[in-house]
Amino acid sequence: MIRTVKPKNARAKRALEKRESKLVENTKQALFVPGQTSNKLLHDVMVDLSALKKPDIKRFNKKNDIHPFEDPEPLEFFSEKNDASLLVLSTSSKKRKNNLTFVRTFGYKIYDMIELLIAENYKLLNDFRKRTFTVGLKPMFSFQGSAFETHPVYKQIKSLFLDFFRGQTTDLQDVAGLQHVISISIQGDFQEGEPLPNVLFRVYKLRTYKSEQGGKTLPRVELDEVGPRLDFKIGRVRTPSPEMEKEAHKRAKQLDVKTKKNVEIDTMGDKLGRIHMGKQDLNKLQTRKMKGLKSKFDQVDDDEEDYLNDSEEDLQGSMSEHEDTFGEDFVTADEIDENQPASKKQRRA
């Protein structure tokens, strides 16, 4: 194994810090390793699988004499040296022809392994002659068959492929990034005493067309197979130990978000709070105290003040006096003409 040495400079220190355990781990890297007995078909298949996994891949060109089920230490060495937790080893023999061994590691130790043998009816990317995949886009998955939820081997295969093509974890979602689908289904039914049914690996690209019903908002979607098309026969399987599985599934407490009562966070990341209040007495509402609103600063006219100070009896008495004397000083129109002096025209006449 690699010796742990003290870093001699800042660059080596940063490199070691990147490999330390983190609360949020980096995107898993996949390492494609050709075995000593690998052939051209296995090389082309690994190239096609790496095209789906890009850019989080590393691929070796030199063949390596590795037997993972007998001696897993060389793969653990490559995993630690290249900081890769996903490995694919290609080997071929008379007993296990065109074999791909998918390996997952935890803490640079073998977590689980499964052998998938390629059947004869395969078809690669070059055979389809379609456009390649956009680098960095994550595929959608479709698992067809109830065995992926019940059978332990097929549950391990489902977990392996989801982990292998997971890519970068993000909360951002864009419909334009949904461009291809990986369909994994089971061929045939289970029969006692017979080998497990094959696993069919298919890749489709989404084609959108204008729909007569939905228009642009709800387009018509069609699937176009772009490859690779692979039929896998299940070989040897190695499952993780209960202790390692428990340790790998352990979640840091810092990542658990503590729920607060009446506090929610929407899809945009805004925090929303809900407040429950009883009935409020507005008479006891504390308003702003202003100096000019005090009673001693009220300005009242003298007449209005006298009117307000008069009692009701005085007001009634004054009203009766005005009623008795009403009409005494009344003057008629004839009296006004008699008392008025004559104008100049009247004097001349």
From TrEMBL:
InterPro entries: Brix, Rpf2. It holds the Pfam family Brix. Residues 28-243 form the Brix domain. Residues 295-349 are annotated as: Disordered. PROSITE patterns: BRIX. One of its GO terms (molecular function) is 7S RNA binding. It is found in: Nucleus, Nucleolus. GO terms for biological process: assembly of large subunit precursor of preribosome; maturation of 5.8S rRNA from tricistronic rRNA transcript (SSU-rRNA, 5.8S rRNA, LSU-rRNA); maturation of LSU-rRNA from tricistronic rRNA transcript (SSU-rRNA, 5.8S rRNA, LSU-rRNA). Keywords: Nucleus. The keyword DNA repair does not apply. Residues 300-315 have a biased composition (Acidic residues). GO terms for cellular component: nucleolus. Its main location: nucleus. Belongs to the RPF2 family. This is Ribosome production factor 2 homolog.
